[in-house]
Amino acid sequence: EIAAKKHYTVGGQIGGFYTHYDGLHFVTVKGAGHMVPTDKPAVAFHIIFSFLFDQKF
């Protein structure tokens, strides 16, 4: 079963949306193209930090 999309915030604003299915996490970044770290560095840091340290969004 696919989980419902939920939003996450970075700095008090919506950074994008995430969902998961069968152990796979899918994250979108609002306002970013294929170079997320260049377009939205704070959001990219938040995503990577959360995955590395097993923290919730």
Automatic annotation (TrEMBL):
Q: Which GO terms describe its molecular function?
A: serine-type carboxypeptidase activity
Under PROSITE patterns, the record lists: CARBOXYPEPT_SER_HIS
Q: Which InterPro entries match?
A: AB_hydrolase_fold, Peptidase_S10, Ser_caboxypep_his_AS
Give a GO biological-process term: proteolysis
At the top level of its lineage, which domain of life is listed?
Answer: Eukaryota
* Xref: Pfam families: Peptidase_S10
UniProt similarity note: Belongs to the peptidase S10 family.
Report what the protein is called. Serine carboxypeptidase
Q: Specify the taxonomic lineage.
A: Eukaryota, Metazoa, Ecdysozoa, Nematoda, Chromadorea
